[in-house]
User: Fold this.
Amino acid sequence: MKAVFISDAHLNGSACDGYRYLMRFLDSLKGDTDELFIVGDFFDFWFSDKNSVYPGFYDIVEKLLGIKKSGTNISFFEGNHDFFLGDYFERHGIRVFPDGAVIDLDGKKLFVSHGDTVDDSNTVYLLWRRVLRSRLFYTIQKEMPSPILWRVSGILSRISRSRNGGERSSNKLTVRMRTFAMKRFEEGLDAVILGHLHSPRFEQHVAHNGVKTFVILGDWIGHYSYLLYDSGKFVMKRYHSTY
Assistant:
């Protein structure tokens, strides 16, 4: 079993470096990877109908669909910038998780989540998150013409970034994420894999019932980091060949 986990590319169009690097990286996975987990904020914003996507994302969406057709299972975990993904991707056989979930990988139990809800003390953000994911907002965005919707999406993306930008480098949030992971380990989980905080972190702890793995995936803005699971082992890696 070979699986790859990535998060926080924050793609906003085909001109950004992360977009070009990801296109090449995704090519390297084709035919060589069983599972690809995209753990939130892959897109800096996302709204679409069932038949069209933002033009700046067209090539990378087609790349993902090609990887799926080649035999790699793909799972999206929605982030604080990209949600309502299911309307488009699920009809192509790509799984979409609106929130965190426990998944099974070779008999190991992993909790995977973007991580933006780990800090339950941030009540203002959590309220904003609920508003954006509400049925009312979903209905409103469905009625908007695509060019206007994409313009509004960019504005909402900037608002979300301003609300959360400081915490992405916060030691406080790192501590909260680690504490959250330790509690999940006590519940019997083998790994906790999160995004949202853009600095990658990889920790393994020896417990009486095996090795426990805590990961913050980092980003594809400056770190180009990803988690590889291969033959029972986790390894944190960076994509260097495009530099």
Observations:
- The CA atoms of residues 49 and 142 lie 7 Å apart.
- The chain has one domain: 2-238.
- Helices lie at 17-29, 58-69, 86-89, 123-132, 135-143, 146-164, 171-186.
